[in-house]
Write a structure and sequence with these properties.
- The chain is an alpha+beta fold.
- It contains twelve helices and nine strands.
- The chain starts with a helix and ends in a 14-residue tail after the last strand.
- Strands 4-3-2-1-7-6-5 form a seven-stranded antiparallel beta sheet. The chain has a two-stranded antiparallel ribbon with strand order 8-9.
- α7 packs antiparallel against α8.
- It has two domains: 162 residues, Dbl Homology Domain, Chain A, CATH 1.20.900; 107 residues, PH-domain like (Roll), CATH 2.30.29.
């Protein structure tokens, strides 16, 4: 089930290319081109089948999420993936890189066909079929347009992931790279400037040290700072220009840019990211009641609960007769405690129902996220 969720209908796509599209194009180009120099008729006939890419594209976000989840959850899965990626046939690319290729395939066909038509004479016998093929392929490509934008974001994440040597698991549909760039950190001891590199994401900042390598890992993560609770402040020093401070839960960093404009840009974009993260967190909290019922088996979907949120106070019951006069039942002490646990006990990140789900320890009752959980514990009562 997990494998099907990751690779979707890729087997059908592979069979289509291997048994139909590739053989016909190969025969036409290698055996028939001298007497029949055309491609449009083949593409027009087979272009409707390219719509099967739509299913793969729609499943792409879920597929990447499954890879990320099971890489964290299963050491065996992680080892298998890493061993396969080391094979020469993989070209030193990650599984996620290869998963991107089918999403980009149809738009590439569209670009190639447009280029083909530019070079094709107006009176060429193949023009009419080629133009009709372009219409069909463009229709199929439209199914991928939204995914392509996500793919471009995912490409950036994969590039950063490789630059970091896999130190941080950032390849996740929920992550977005906002800005990156070289910066200098001012030493707290003597004020000397040290070369550093910042990666700003929608949920965190990675403060990195450059590695002097021509190939492979370029940066090592020195500090990970969550956007939640982060503060950024402009400072003015008489002997040090273009400086500002970012303050997280664990530490503060005094940073310096090359120009005043660059400093203002960093401050503005970090502040905007903080504000957007706050808005998103408030939205998740507003819908927290509905989401937590899906996540927490202790909450029954048909039990009305009291809440200060307008969205959570709406109670629906089957039948509806006499419901208006009923007083909603109050939360039990256990349920109230569970709802108060909105962040991971280990890493402190806020829970949500999509990318940061809650996990309850059956022994001690602590609530942590999947990344911090090993999903098992030794039970001392079993002998």
């Amino acid at each position: 089930e997990v494998i099907t969720g990751i690779f979707s209908n890729i087997s059908s796509i592979h069979r289509f290319h291997g048994q139909f599209l590739l053989p016909e194009l190969k025969t036409r180009i290698t055996e028939e081109w001298d007497t029949n120099p055309r491609l449009g008729d083949i593409l027009q006939k087979l272009a409707p089948f390219l719509k099967m890419y739509g299913e793969y594209v729609k499943n792409f976000d879920r597929a990447v999420g499954l890879v990320s989840t099971w890489t964290q959850r299963s050491p065996l899965f992680k080892d298998v993936i890493h061993s396969i990626q080391k094979q020469e046939v993989c070209g030193n690319l990650t599984l996620q890189h290869h998963m991107l290729e089918p999403v980009q395939r149809v738009p590439r066909y569209e670009l190639l066909l447009k280029d083909y038509l530019k070079r094709l004479p107006e009176d060429a016998p193949d023009r009419k079929d080629a133009e009709r093929s372009l219409e069909l392929i463009s229709t199929a490509a439209n199914h991928s347009n939204a995914a392509i934008r996500k793919v471009e974001k995912m490409h950036k994440l994969l590039e950063v992931y490789e630059q970091l040597g896999g130190e941080e698991d950032i390849v996740n549909p929920a992550n977005e790279l906002i800005k990156e760039g070289q910066i200098q950190k001012l030493s707290a001891k003597n004020g000397t400037a040290q070369d550093r590199h910042l990666f700003l994401f929608n949920s965190m900042i990675l403060y990195c040290v450059p590695k002097l390598r021509l190939m492979g890992q370029k940066f090592s993560v020195r500090e990970k700072m969550d956007i939640s609770g982060l503060q950024v402040q402009d400072i003015v020093k008489p002997n040090t220009a273009h400086t500002f401070i970012i303050t997280g839960r664990k530490r503060s960093l005094e940073l310096q840019t090359r120009t005043e404009e660059e400093k203002k840009e960093w401050i503005q974009i970090i502040q905007a990211t903080i504000e957007k993260h706050k808005q998103n967190s408030e939205t998740f909290k507003a819908f927290g009641g509905a989401f937590s019922q899906d996540e927490d088996p202790s909450l029954s979907p048909d039990v009305p609960i009291t809440s200060t949120s307008p969205l959570e106070s709406v109670v629906t019951t089957e039948g509806g007769s006499g419901a208006a006069g009923l007083e909603p039942r109050k939360l039990s002490s256990k349920t109230r405690r569970d709802k108060e646990k909105q962040s991971c006990k280990s890493c402190g990140e806020t829970f949500n129902s999509i990318t940061k789900r809650r996990h309850h320890c059956k022994l001690c009752g602590v609530v942590i996220c999947g990344k911090c959980s090993k999903f098992k514990a030794e039970n001392s009562r079993q002998s």
